[in-house]
């Protein structure tokens, strides 16, 4: 479960993202409204209204160690495109992950928090791969209200396409930061580590169009290593989006 504090953040998550998002190659501002609010009189002009960001959905995964907050936001730009933004929250800097640092915020309960792009954080990668391959789901979120934990209505419903096979399920540990390599395009971000490629669709599309269903090659013969390639996905629905959208595709070249 994820414990949510009734706390203030200075600056807020969206304040941090307002400076970070425009630097990303996949960021798509609402160009139709870019000039809204601008006026001109002679040689003077009023600058356009600042881009508005809003969170239209979100979900969390549990960090088994209980140290790192793992949350994905669905951030809408003005009234247009919705971007998927995985974040992690840490109580100390993640050494070696400076390029993935989005910013630092003050949490009124937990103190200083370092906010990272999830694709550069080993904990996000591990919990995401495990959820996709093993048919996992979003974490239940509880709000601490005067010492009583109240279950919060989920803001997104997330599930992995893999199969939870008990003792045979694949469970990976967080990789070392030095193992992680991330590239981004106009539509997605891909992180590679060990035998895994993790593709995050920054502008999620309906599941049938974004990526194929999970596939598994022919099982090996008895006594042979299991080197079957496997694809699995995470899909989600959220308020105003009842059709499942593909969030993440995980590909692994071999069983670890």
Automatic annotation (TrEMBL):
Residues 20-121 form the Maltokinase N-terminal cap domain. Keywords: ATP-binding, Kinase, Nucleotide-binding, Transferase. It comes from the Bacteria. Residues 31-54, 204-230 are annotated as: Disordered. One of its GO terms (molecular function) is ATP binding. The keyword Iron-sulfur does not apply. Residues 214-225 have a biased composition (Low complexity). This is Maltokinase N-terminal cap domain-containing protein. It comes from Subtercola lobariae.
């Amino acid at each position: 479960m994820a414990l949510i504090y009734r706390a203030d953040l200075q600056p807020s998550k969206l304040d941090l993202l307002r400076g970070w998002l425009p630097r990303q190659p996949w960021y798509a501002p609402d160009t139709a409204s870019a000039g809204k609010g601008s006026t001109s009189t002679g040689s003077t002009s009023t600058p356009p209204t600042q881009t508005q960001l809003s969170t239209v959905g979100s979900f969390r995964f549990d960090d088994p160690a209980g140290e790192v907050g793992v949350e994905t936001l669905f951030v809408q730009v003005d009234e247009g495109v919705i971007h998927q933004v995985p974040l992690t929250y840490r109580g100390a800097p993640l050494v070696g992950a400076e390029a993935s640092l989005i910013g630092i915020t003050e949490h009124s309960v937990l103190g200083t928090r370092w906010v990272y792009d999830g694709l550069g954080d080993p904990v996000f990668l591990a919990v995401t791969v495990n959820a996709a391959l093993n048919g996992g789901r979003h974490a239940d979120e509880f709000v601490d209200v005067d010492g009583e934990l109240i279950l919060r209505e989920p803001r997104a419903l997330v599930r992995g396409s893999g199969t939870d096979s008990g003792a045979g399920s694949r469970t990976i540990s967080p990789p070392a930061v030095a193992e992680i390599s991330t590239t981004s395009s106009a539509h997605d971000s891909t992180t590679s580590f060990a035998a895994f490629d993790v593709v995050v669709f920054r502008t999620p599309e309906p599941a049938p169009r974004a990526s194929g269903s999970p596939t598994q090659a022919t099982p090996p013969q008895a006594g042979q290593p299991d080197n079957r390639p496997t694809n699995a996905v995470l899909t989600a629905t959220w308020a105003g989006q009842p059709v499942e959208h593909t969030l993440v595709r995980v590909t692994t070249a071999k069983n670890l």
